[in-house]
Amino acid sequence: MGSLDFELKEIERKIEEINKFMKSTGIDLSGEIDTLKKRKDAIQATILSESGPWNRVLIARHKNRPNYKDYVEGMLEDFMELHGDRNYKDDGAIVGGIGYFNGIPVTFISHAKGKDTQENILRNFGMPHPEGYRKALRLMKQAEKFKRPVICLIDTPGAYCGIGAEERGQGEAIARNLLEMSDLKTPIISVVIGEGGSGGALALGVADRVLMLENSIYSVISPEGCASILLKDSSRADEAAKYLKLTAKDLLELKVIDDIINEPAGGAHNDIKMTVDNVKEMISKHLKEIMAKDINELVRDRYNKIRCIGVYSE
Amino acid sequence: MAWKDIFIKRKYATVIIPKESSVKVKDNLIEIENLPDIKDISEVLEKEYDKDIFSKCPSCGEMLINLDLYENLNVCTKCNYHFRLDSKQRIEITFDEGSAEYFDENMRTLNPLNYPNYKEKISNLQKELEINEGVITGKAKINDKDICFGAMDWKFIMGSMGSVVGEKLARMFEKAIELKLPVVVFSVSGGARMQEGMLSLSQMAKVSAAVKNHSNHGLLYISVLTDPTTGGVTASFASLGDIIIAEPKATIGFAGKRVIEQTIRQKLPEDFQSAEFLLEHGFVDMIVNRKEMKDTLYKILTLHSGGDFNGES
Which parts of the sequence belong to the CoA carboxyltransferase C-terminal domain (chain A) (predicted)? Predict the structure, then answer.
């Protein structure tokens, strides 16, 4: 793997050199660049498959990974953000609102990670307080009333751990979402776009269809947390990531999710537009299927789907 | 408690004879001479005591005689500290004698993630505790009132919820719908079980969906939170009772104290995430002493078994 990393850097350096050369001399060498880019994609794919889950963890957490804003801009028209939980405050770690998706009015709810430090502080690094989940639930109940489908994007390291979060009932807030979402009388699609961190992610993840981007992760505990418990060493997170079965492929096999959305070579951050388009296309496909169902049938199917997850013998 | 009181009360005890004392047998009676005058037995038993006979209260440090403790429903006779009960003890003290019937006793845990040492851990615990998993579910009576129940067990990987715990609880709620019965769940859990990964997390949604289903049928669910109830269990069915009861001083919360302290880099107050803290912040209806638990449950059940306001009772 080390040598592949080296080759990747070499190729990137060569591409840059050729670009400079083309600019200064005016000679067209784009054919050369295409060949090099293809080689680069192939190497990235190899690195990913060889290094396994941990590399996906890193890609899922990449600072340039498309976030809620990219999806709002790329998937929705006339989006209007709606604020607050009507109880305590507006939580910036969850963004919600209404807009058109392929001409259909939808309710959109997403964990919100920032792309720089300033925005991350505002958004609490995508880690919601109870009021964030209560805002999400308020908007879902509103969607139910106006018969709008709900699109949830999951992208959080986890629900926030702090004094205020406990005082205001973090557990209750998440629990309430699980209960209400299981029975919400309108279609729901959830897409894990980056990190799906435990209960804080699941609180937006009880849906008719749960999709995952190819390099996103969804886990009961962070690999660091697992490593500190299992291996008594949080720095061995790469090892722990292998045990947790947190990749899209693993979770499709375990029937926790319903479909996988492809990412550009090397990860979503390499081509944000392509990623957003892929997500939009897959949501369209699944939305069409679930919107065709009678609402009682839809809710019954959702219940049965949730009820069937689990592995045991008797 | 002094030596003499223990002998009088229990007729036997393990005694560590101090060096300066001497033991004589006279007329079939044991006489200990020069026994130092000890006001507090815990001074002597501080370091070494026979665990078959004594238990030390983790809260006040009192040395308690196990038989007394047992008769007091495992509650400290001095400071009211509620010792943890395992699932069998909970069933024994809560439900009418011999009334419990059990559901899904043969459901078995698998190792779907091939998580290291998980299989061994499960089978060792099954042998040691003589229970299959972290929850016992079934049907029982409280003062002749039928209910369905779940009793979690902290001794089984801290009552963590994997596929079996989730499935057993969901089925129990569904059985209660079929039988038109209320549900009482005694929670004690560290949360979702890491060793089954996302399958464990998904059980939170599964049991919450079953709670909603049961609720949609107009049936009562009483959630009893005992020490400790945390993580994914707090963030699912434990917080979803129509009525939520906590045992005194139980630790109840979402995130672990250590995790919060690491996040905010400051020490947390003593009563943080206690049952009393939750009552103050509006997340439990009442705190009930173990001795009054059965009667309280019975009263609540009775209040919910009358006719509705449109009909005759």
Answer: 35-289
